[in-house]
Amino acid sequence: MTPAPIADPSSPPTAPAIDPLQRLRAATSALHARLDTRLPIAREGAGPDDYMRHLALLRGWVGLLQQSGAASRRLDDERDALDAELADCQRLLGQPAPRVEVRAVPDAALTADGADWGLAYVLEGSRLGGQVLHKRLAPAMAPLPLNYLRGAGAGTGPRWKQFVAELKEALTNEARMDAAAAAARHAFELLLRCHEALPTVQGESASRPLG
User: Fold this and answer.
1) How many CB atoms lie within 10 A of CB 54?
2) Cβ atoms within 10 Å of 107's Cβ, excluding its own
3) C-alpha distances in angstroms, 122 versus 24, 77, 86, 98, 192?
4) Secondary structure in 3-state letters for 83-146
5) Which one of 7, 21, 81, 110 has the lowest number of neighbouring Cβ atoms within 10 Å?
6) 208 φψ region: left (φ > 0), alpha (ψ -120 to 50), beta (else)
7) How wide is the angle at C-alpha 114 spanned by C-alphas 112 and 120, nearest 5°?
8) What CA–CA distance (Å, rounded) separates 145 from 16?
9) How many CB atoms are closer than 10 A to CB 43?
10) Measuring CA to CA, how many Å separate 57 from each of 97, 101, 188, 190?
11) Considering only CA atoms, which of 64, 85, 84 is closest in space to residue 75?
């Protein structure tokens, strides 16, 4: 048996033993599963009105993140994409989108060193999932083009791979990984809060408590 080499204290630090992507998935999987069953477009027979409510939910969430202290180019891009899609939906459906009102509180978990990568993980993962939703929902959503779910189209997969590579380069120590995981969890928790604040529609049961 060959003995393990003794680490040279003068050598550069190695990458963390835990893969950042695995760490983020483990930190958010339970919250993600809860959320997936509650989205307006997850309900059986979801149609164009549900899609607009879904967009309104996400727009309220992005606004809440920004008002709570989160800041990144990805959040700005997400806000702009949602605003454009909501404008199209309101025009095509001839009705206003609902508003999601949740009081924002400054939160250090969203501004810590490494937190931006946790938020980026949630946003980029959402765009990747949007491709699956687009294929499943497109036939039932006419006349809506679902441009938001289409995202980067064929470029979505390569974009995700590039993001994962950048994530592994950025989160090279436990402190930054912890901050990213905390921010990702908090982002999902805020989205669940926004879901509770989303106005119900006639025939829809009231939102369930989060506990």
Assistant:
1) 22
2) 17
3) 9, 14, 21, 23, 13
4) HHHHHHHHHHHCCCCCCCCCCCCCCHHHCCCCHHHHHHHHHHHHHHHHHHHHHHHHHHCCCCCC
5) 7
6) beta
7) 110
8) 43
9) 13
10) 10, 10, 12, 11
11) 64
Structure tokens at 45: 């027979």
| Amino acid letter, 51 | Y
Amino acid, single-letter form, for residue 198:
L
Show the tokens assigned to 47: 């149609």
The overall pTM is greater than 0.70? yes
Tokens describing residue 32:
């993600």
User: One-letter amino acid identity for 69?
Assistant: G
Give the containing element (helix H, strand E) for 176.
Answer: helix 174-197
Structure tokens at 113: 């060193």
First to last CA, the chain: 53
Q: Please report, in tens digits, the pLDDT of each residue of the chain (211 residues total).
A: 333 333 344 444 444 467 999 999 999 999 999 998 889 998 888 999 999 999 999 999 999 999 999 999 999 999 999 999 999 999 999 999 999 999 999 999 999 999 999 999 999 999 888 888 888 898 889 889 899 999 888 898 899 999 999 999 999 999 999 999 999 999 999 999 999 999 986 544 333 322 2
Question: Which residue, chain included where needed, has tokens 């490494």?
Answer: 114
